[in-house]
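Async update (no meeting this week)

Hi team, since we skipped the sync, here's where things stand on the single-chain job. The sequence we agreed to prioritize is pasted below, unchanged from the tracker. I ran it this morning and attached the output directly underneath so nobody has to dig for it. Comments welcome in thread, and please keep replies under the output.
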Amino acid sequence: MVTQITRGIKISVTTSFEGTYFKNYKIHFAFSYEITIENHSKDSVQLVSRHWEIFDALNNLEIVDGEGVIGKKPVLKPGETHTYNSGCLLSSPFGAMRGHFNMINFTSTRNFRVIVPTFKLSAGFALN
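Output:
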């Protein structure tokens, strides 16, 4: 698990290798990840959008931007937590993701960025 706190918002990430499969005549490596967002600040906040940079061992980079996470824009009051699961496909058994969440502080009405720390994606069979 990797964790990081930005402006009172704690992000924790765990990952798992889900298997391989063929898509468009090419092998893909499927990974899932679980992200927990904890509000340790004194203000209510809302996650409004996300930005991901997804890398694999073949030097491929995919950038993903979008609203919310898995179709939601969670509001977290002080002390609240939001957890969600998602996934990605890589062209190699190793890779990594990093990014950020764009959030709004309801007290100050200001937007701010919460860093998602770089987390590794690795297929256990490929280690050694």
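Quick observations from my side:
The CA atoms of residues 53 and 63 lie 5 Å apart.
The mean pLDDT is 96.
Reply here if anything looks off.
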